Task: structure prediction
Amino acid sequence: MENRVKVSDYIAETLIAKGITDVFGYPGGMVTHLMDSFDKYHDSIRAHNNYHEQAAAFAACGYSSSMRPGVAYATSGPGATNLITGICNSYFDSVPTIFITGQVNTYESRLGTFARQKGFQETDIVSMVKCVTKYAAQVNDANKIKYYLQKAYFLCLDGRPGPVLLDIPMDVLRADIEVDSLEDFIPNKKIITNDTIEFDMILNEIKHAKRPCILVGAGIKTSGMTKNFREMMNNLKVPVVSSMLAVDVMSPNEVTGFGFIGAYGDRAANFILDKSDLIVSFGSRLDYRQTGNNLENFAAKAKLIRVDVDPMELSNKIKQDEYQIIANLENLVPYLNSKLAKKNLNIHDDWLLVCYEIREKLKDMDQQLPNDFVEKISRIVEDHTIITTDVGQNQVWIAQSFQTKENQKILFSGGHGAMGYSLPAAIGAYYGHKKKVISFSGDGGIQMNIQELQTIARDQLPIKIVIFNNHALGMIRHFQEMYFDSNYVQTKSCGGYTVPDFEKIAGAYDLRYQKLSCLEEVSIIQDMIKDDLPIIIEVVLPEDTYVYPKLAVGNFNNDQEPALDREIYEYLKNL
Result:
């Protein structure tokens, strides 16, 4: 790094030094210096021009799945505010991301006045995102840039990951600085010190429980512990269930994996949880989608041990007598592995046999045409491929039926549940991993960031876009059927919702196109899925599609709709 550099050059050089190879954004007046600096260092870091700032934010989220922070930039005003949905997505799903917004020159700022706005497109983005970031600050002194960058980078990764934002006025971005005289940020790192007695207690409780169950959440993925966790479970030999976001932690080939829990979860997973006498939760928030709204109904017979890095998350108690452990999974999982190595505990074999019987009794009970399509497509998707989903029925079908291979990842918009996530997240995931990506969307979600088809076409990215088209906003349509006397306002063609001709859309973007109208046609796309060219694959579905099983408000998690035959239900309850 040269001794005297422009601030925007210093930012680019700092990101390069951190191993960040790709950033995402949209041009704007207040970030022109930053854009120019990224171009100056394009051999080491590439700035990818999305066609909407929200898409750039989601692309940064997708890039972060490579275990490096994703970076997105935007100009002041509408550019900055367009990032907010992606910032929220990062915050609620604990995704490490860095957002850089341009701001009007300091001499144009309204600060020190009572005016709403002084400079063109001036907007106080820092105040807007304070509650959905780990750190947000405006950099008004060029000589403090090193301090702010170091602090932002540290905080986005420290403890529970999340987004940070730096708002930088244009005159600061173009200022020259003396690198050797810059102030460092000295982190006050909160070291979580755990007495290994607590870790040993987890194993002891599992050994002495009759029907223990492990609940794995996305914290295992964000901590980089997926492989270690699988190894641990291969030795521990107890059933594992997951949150939806962690459905890819245990692949269907792993003998102790039983799917994800909750309102739309696997019936078998919900039954197993309900029958357990001990649940150990690793890095899961246990929100209402998982527990149901009546907490007394959640695993009523089980003792609950919760492990989380974020003490604030543990303030939301699920059981009044739950045992809480604040720990880094990077420390806990390897420790437990070392204790279990080569021991292959088989003391819960009888309990596992019960779990297998539950799974067999409930197998394919809720399988529908969309699930069949997902499963059949997943069979031809190569290992090491990244999968992204949108929000709505398609998300649940993927979680339920995509048969993940060992090195595949599935990326969701979970807590924030943002439609329009899948396509731009796929772009970021490609650049983060340099691997093929399958992007699943519904006909509604695809239209929310449809402009990113141009990014994919322009750069000929190996992203396969699968659109489930039922000509409806299926999840809300189902709600209207259940609770609004089938008044399908704004969700079906009869209520004013329509979709475009996706074949013509593909042609407009100069992308290949293939329609699938029946399961037998999936074989047509086998070579298309495996090549390195983009393609739009439209899966034609009936207008009235459903996500089953589905939990009705107030029911036990293991009593989802459509209701099981009562004899089968009672038999499984009494196993």
